[in-house]
Structures are given as C-alpha cells and as structure tokens.
Amino acid sequence: MEISELLSPDGIVANLKANSKKQALQELAARASRLTGLHERQIFDTLLERERLGTTGVGNGIAIPHGRLAGLPKLHGLFARVERPIDFDSIDEMPVDLVFLLLAPESAGADHLKALARVSRLLRDKAICEKLRGADSADAMYALLTDTPASHAA
Fold first, then answer.
1. Which of 52, 60, 92, 137 has the smallest C-beta neighbourhood within 10 Å, fewest atoms?
2. Phi, psi torsion values for 29, nearest 5 degrees
3. Mind spelling out the 3-state secondary structure of the chain?
4. Is 66 designated active site?
5. Residue 40: CB atoms within 10 Å
6. Alpha-carbon distance 97 to 26, whole Å?
7. Please, what is the Cα angle at 28 between 109 and 35, to 5 degrees?
8. What pLDDT score was predicted for residue 148?
9. Is pLDDT larger for residue 19 or for residue 109?
10. Strand duo 62-63 + 66-69: pairing
C-alpha cells in the first residue's frame, strides 16, 4: 500500500493551528469531513474514542490518530504539521508537531493495519520527518510523503 493511495494533495495541512490535542483532532475532523463527506462530529467522536484506549502519540513528535467509520468507502489519510508543538500524551511525553490521521472503513480489517504499519514506517524515518518539519508548503510535504523509496513499503 502506497501513501499516495491514502493521501491526496487536499489532505495536507501545512500549518495546523491548535493549542491542544482535542483542538487538533477537531480541526482534522473538520478537514476530513470535507474530504470524505462524513459528518465532522462522527469523525471527531471516533478519534476521541480511539484516544481513550491509549494515546496515538507514538513518540519523536509524531502522532497517528486513527479510527474506523461506518459509511466510509475507502481508506483516507490527512497529514498536518502543527504550527506550535502540542501535548498529545505521547508515549515519550514529548510534544507533537507531525500528525498523520488515518480513517478506515468499518470493514477494512487487514487493510487498516497495513496502512497504519505503512504510515508508521514512513514516519520512523528521521530524515523524512526533518524534511517535513522544514518544508515550506503543503505541496512540498505531499511530495515528501508520496515520493518515498520502496524500502518503506508495507
């Protein structure tokens, strides 16, 4: 599974303005609503429910919030660089500035897990993360995320 199958250029937020984890999830749910046609509240509630199970702040300034949604026809991803790093209850207790939101159909099964693994592998690459942090536009971020070598493939 390629990142380009999950992410569209419209799914990049170059400078997300958020002061908290909840606010970041609300902003991303609003953006995801426009991309998927699903109700913003449904997306936000799904993300909050997942966060209650355990943080999706995976460390090194990265969070991968995700959830399964009824009525979603295919996997969708959104990527955001947070303007000022925020507390995300990360496992390493460091603030988060890179967020990759992943939404999957309720019936996605293994595809959801493969997509999560793919995103996780990509964002474990410190060089890519540094380039994402230094990118000057959403287009540049999209190119970095989608033009990755096959070694990151799921």
1. 52
2. -65, -40
3. CCHHHCEEEEEEEEEECCCCHHHHHHHHHHHHHHHHCCCHHHHHHHHHHHHHHCCCEEECCEECCEEEECCCCCCEEEEEEEEEEECCCCCCCCCEEEEEEEEEECCCCHHHHHHHHHHHHHHCCHHHHHHHHHCCCHHHHHHHHHCCCHHHCC
4. yes
5. 16
6. 16
7. 70
8. 61
9. 19
10. unpaired
> Average of pLDDT values for 74-79?
96
As a dihedral over the C-alpha atoms of residue 114, residue 81, residue 73, residue 58, rounded to 10 degrees, the angle is 30
Which of 39, 66, 76, 112 is the catalytic position? 66
Look up the pTM and report it.
0.93
Full set of structural domains in the chain with CATH: 3-148 (3.40.930.10)
Side chain identity, residue 71: G
Encode pLDDT of 81-124 as tens digits: 999 999 999 999 999 999 999 999 998 888 889 999 999 999 99
Q: Using an 8 Å Cβ cutoff, are 36 and 42 in contact?
A: no
Tokens of 75: 């996997």
Hey, what amino acid is at 132?
Answer: L
